[in-house]
Q: What sequence folds into this?
């Protein structure tokens, strides 16, 4: 049987994890002189309550090799094989750690480690696809090839509430952040195949939401409305998406501290084609 192992940046809801016996390997957060493991969606409220009110910037670190080795060996001991998804290697060293762990587990031939080249709900969507194909009797090799094809056109897009967090993370300069805030400029950030880009700069959140939704292909395999820190703009995005895609199932996704450390509170869309 094919089992799934993901790191915590997949942000898969607890009920889906339990129903499909998915193992989650947490990344670590360093914040306010404390270190803690990133949890699951629904457990981030206390962190964001503090994060959005202070000027302290969290740091993140990848899991230990041992955490992956233990997960791999559990799968192998139960007579199964595994597909492993990690956050993009362009954002974290987690993919390298997962591969190192593979070489030190009981049977490396039973484990396939995939660089998601993304994060968040793209990984959740890939897991959905793996589960469906495994039920149809596809082999691990067939599924891995199929996922690599999906990655070509899959994307996650964000509109940050503020440019402040991008400035803190060194992704834009202080002057650009100040001017952007004064003019209410909202960048649309895209993350595709491991590359983070600013696709557009829009005046005002209303126009940004419309342009964000316009970027979604009409035919998608999986579609997600996503948010970081339960931003006040999420409801408007979600309702508009349902109007534009009335026949498409739209999943709601919450992203956690690791991704928040890069862009701060935000809304976005995520799709797999």
A:
């Amino acid at each position: 049987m094919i089992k799934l192992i993901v790191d915590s940046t997949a942000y898969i809801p607890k009920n889906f994890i339990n129903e499909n016996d998915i193992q989650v390997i947490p990344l670590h957060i360093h914040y306010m002189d404390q270190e803690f493991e990133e949890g699951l969606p629904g457990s981030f409220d206390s962190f964001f309550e503090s994060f959005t009110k202070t000027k302290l910037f969290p740091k993140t670190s990848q899991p230990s090799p041992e955490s992956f080795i233990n997960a791999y060996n559990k799968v192998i001991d139960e007579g199964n094989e595994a597909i492993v998804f990690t956050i993009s290697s362009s954002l974290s060293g987690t993919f390298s750690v997962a591969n190192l762990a593979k070489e030190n587990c009981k049977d490396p031939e039973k484990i396939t480690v995939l660089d998601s080249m993304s994060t968040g709900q793209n990984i959740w969507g890939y897991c959905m696809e793996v589960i469906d194909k495994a039920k149809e009797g596809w082999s691990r090799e067939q599924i891995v090839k199929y996922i690599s094809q999906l990655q070509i056109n899959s994307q996650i897009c964000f509109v940050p509430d503020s440019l402040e967090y991008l400035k803190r993370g060194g992704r834009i300069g202080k002057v650009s952040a100040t001017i952007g805030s004064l003019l209410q400029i909202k960048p649309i950030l895209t993350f595709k195949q491991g590359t983070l880009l600013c696709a557009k700069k829009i005046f005002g959140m209303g126009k940004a939401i419309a342009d964000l939704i316009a970027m979604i292909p009409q035919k998608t395999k999986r579609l997600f409305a996503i948010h970081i820190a339960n931003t006040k703009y999420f409801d408007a995005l979600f309702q508009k998406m349902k109007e534009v895609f009335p026949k498409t199932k739209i999943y709601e996704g919450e992203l956690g501290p690791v991704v928040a450390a890069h862009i701060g509170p935000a809304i976005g869309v995520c799709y797999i084609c």
Observations:
- Confidence is low (pLDDT under 50) at residues 171-183.
- The chain has eleven helices and 13 strands.
- The two ends are 26 Å apart (CA to CA).
